[in-house]
């Protein structure tokens, strides 16, 4: 049985060029040969220097835990966390 994906996102515009955001999402799969879960969370700020070009700074965390049962049993787990900076272009 597979559970539904959940997602929550909040964004607050301070003015036309500055926004704060928080995002959480995740998915869980049970049953079958592969089972596991993936969770993601991020908080940050978007600053649009121009009308359609901006800079995004955020801190994110991702947790991936997958298991494959059967003849070739395998388990994969990774955790990623840290700051990010990137350019955002909107049309």
Q: What topology does this entry show?
A:
Layout lengths: L5 E10 L2 E12 L4 E15 L4 E16 L5 E16 L2
Antiparallel strand pairs: 1-2, 2-3, 3-4, 4-5
Structural write-up:
A 5-stranded antiparallel beta sheet has the order 1-2-3-4-5, with no helix packed on it. The protein has 91 residues and is mainly beta. The mean pLDDT is 89.
State the strand order across the main sheet.
1-2-3-4-5
Number of strands: 5
Whole-number mean pLDDT: 89
Q: Fraction of residues in helices? A: under 10%
Distance between the termini: 39 Å
Please write the string of helix (H) and strand (E) elements.
Answer: EEEEE
Number of helices: 0
Poorly predicted runs of 5 or more residues = none
Biggest sheet layout:
5 strands, antiparallel
* Rg computed from alpha carbons, rounded to a whole number of angstroms: 18 Å
- Strand-pairing-aware structural class: mainly beta
Overall 3D form: elongated
Residue share in β-strands: over 45%
In short:
The protein has 91 residues and is an all-beta fold. The chain has strands at 6-15, 18-29, 34-48, 53-68, 74-89.
Characteristics:
single chain, 91 residues, mainly beta, 5-stranded antiparallel β-sheet, 5 strands, elongated
């Amino acid at each position: 049985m597979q559970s539904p994906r959940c997602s929550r996102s909040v964004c607050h515009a301070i003015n036309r060029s500055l926004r704060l955001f928080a995002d959480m999402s995740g998915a869980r799969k049970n049953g079958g040969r592969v089972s596991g879960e993936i969770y993601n969370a991020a908080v940050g700020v978007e600053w649009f220097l121009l009308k359609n070009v901006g800079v995004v700074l955020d801190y994110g965390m991702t947790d991936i835990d997958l298991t494959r049962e059967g003849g070739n049993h395998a388990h994969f787990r990774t955790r990623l966390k840290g700051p990010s900076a990137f350019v955002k272009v909107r049309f």
